[in-house]
Design goal:
The structure holds two protein chains of two kinds. Chain A has one domain: Muramoyl-pentapeptide Carboxypeptidase, domain 2. By secondary structure, chain A is of the alpha+beta class. Chain A starts with 6 loop residues before the first helix and ends in a 6-residue tail after the last strand. In chain A, β1 and β2 form a beta hairpin. Chain A contains five helices and four strands. In chain A, strands 1-2-4-3 form a four-stranded antiparallel β-sheet. Chain B has a single domain, classed as Muramoyl-pentapeptide Carboxypeptidase, domain 2. A four-stranded antiparallel β-sheet of chain B has the order 2-3-5-4, with helices on one face. In chain B, α1 packs across α2, α2 crosses α6 and α3 crosses α4. Chain B is globular, with a radius of gyration of 18 Å. Classes of the chains: A alpha+beta, B alpha+beta.
């Protein structure tokens, strides 16, 4: 059995395997598949609660992942923000000395969440420039004209 | 309206996000659909050999007790009751239900047809370069109930 605490390296290795088999296109296709087939809980939370659905979704996942973060919800401004001070996933990968993380491990976050949120009327703005330090930020912003 | 702020540090929570089992299952399903069932086994073997390299080395050095310690920890953190029986040459692990499968069933995540390979192929890979071998004696796809057997290879 692969424990859920061993999932992150298992996923990183899956991305490598897919790239070996089908190139970058296979990795991107899988991320799209994952978004379409695994993130129904984010989609339904946002459909039911508007931008508050982001808080509901990420408050659940990031607490279970024991992440070090600051999360802000401003419903009046239509903004939701996460500052990830230490990402538990990338942090774990960086701690491993015997395997290398997939070269664009953090790229999946940008693809899978954007694919859910943009069609629902939100801009998804991610800053991945400090991924190599297990730090990132994301801003979800209601598009002009969208009502909730 | 007031801005809501949540601040958490790693020490505020225990790292246990069982929904990851559903994501792994989705990965296995995708691999089978697009690259075939042999790709699932190749991926899991490749993952096991690279990620569990320190554990495999421990099995070479300490024998089956290294696997006993590893799986005892895994099932403890997953909250599963595993009956484990260890001798110098054999290790049996009996589960009434796989905690990963139980979580996926409970939360409505599809369980990949080949999800059992996370036990079968991974266990075989753990033993591949050691004096031991692994076999999955019994597996129920609905619950993940299983009997896993590790044994010393005949000379």
């Amino acid at each position: 059995m692969i424990s859920c605490t061993e999932f992150i390296p298992a996923y990183s290795e899956l991305f490598k395997f897919l790239e070996q088999r089908g190139g970058r296109a296979a990795v991107l296709d899988f991320w799209n598949y994952l978004s379409d087939n695994f993130l129904g809980n984010l989609k339904s939370a946002v459909e039911a609660n508007g931008i508050r659905g982001c808080r509901i979704y990420w408050n659940h996942t990031l607490n279970e992942e024991a992440a070090d973060f600051t999360m802000e919800l401003d419903e009046e401004a239509g903004e939701f923000r996460i500052d990830m001070h230490h990402c538990p996933s990338m942090g774990r990968l960086l701690e491993l000395t015997h395997i290398e993380p997939y070269h664009d491990y953090c790229g999946h976050c940008d693809v899978i969440y954007r694919r859910i949120l943009e069609p629902l009327g939100y801009d998804y703005i991610a800053d991945m420039s400090h991924c190599h330090e297990a730090k990132c930020s994301l801003l979800v912003k209601k598009k002009p004209g969208k009502t909730e | 309206m007031v801005k809501e702020v949540i601040r958490r540090t790693a020490s505020d929570n225990v790292y246990l996000h069982k929904d990851f089992h559903g994501a792994l299952s989705a990965g296995i399903e995708y691999l089978e659909r697009h690259f075939g069932q042999e790709a699932v086994r190749q991926y899991l073997r490749q993952f096991a050999i690279s990620y569990y390299a320190p554990l495999i080395e421990a099995v070479r050095e300490r024998g089956l007790v290294a696997l006993y310690d590893h799986f005892a920890e895994v099932y403890k953190e997953e909250g599963a009751e595993a009956r484990m029986n260890l001798t110098e040459d054999e290790l049996f692990i009996e589960l009434d239900a796989c905690p990963a499968v139980a979580h996926m069933r409970q939360h409505g995540y599809p369980v990949a047809r080949l999800f059992y390979e996370t036990a079968k192929t991974v266990n075989e890979a753990l033993c591949e370069s050691t004096p031991f071998a692994a076999e999955l004696l019994d597996y129920d796809r609905q619950t993940g109930r299983s009997i896993q057997h590790f044994y010393r290879r005949p000379l």
